[in-house]
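PROTEIN DATA CARD
Card holder: DNA-binding transcriptional repressor AcrR
Chain length: 200
Origin: Kibdelosporangium persicum
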Amino acid sequence: MSGYSDDHSGHVSGSVKRGGTRRADAQRNRERILQAARDLLHEPGELKLNAVAKACGIGQGTLYRHFPTREDLLSELYRHEVEELVAAAPHLLATHEPLDALAAWFDRVAAYARIKRDVFAAVEAATWQDLSAHSLGPIGDAVELLLAAGRSAGSIRADTEARDVIVLISWLSRLDDAELDARGQRLLSILVDGLRAHRH
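Structure generated from the sequence above:
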């Protein structure tokens, strides 16, 4: 009886381990695909799935299992960028003063703006409208989290609203790389100064 139990336990744990390994491998492949797509997105010309597969060292079949179409890949890349941007807000607040956290978050916004611009230029209008509609809420929540902390600390103007900031930073995705490099950080620093509470 005990021998049966040992064999049975070993069989189950082995199956679980193999299943877990497969899931971990699949997740690693997915992350590699997204990183390769992110790196290649800025290069001239249309993003090619076979170039993405080659860049991350996987077969095209593996890539297609994760992302059957180019638009699927680009949409997921944008959603991934939004998730990372939103997740950064509470992390930065945990390690910085509110106004400094907002400024550091804006640094990430500049990188996000490049991805947004390039993805939206490459997908169908219906797709980017859907992506934009679904990302506005989470990004607005992240902005409000940062602003609320600054208002409570007295370092950010009491009349600031998340919508104001969203409208202002949305212009970043309309700039090309040269303009972003030349003006992006300066524009964001001006915005931070504009949000700063006036000391009397």
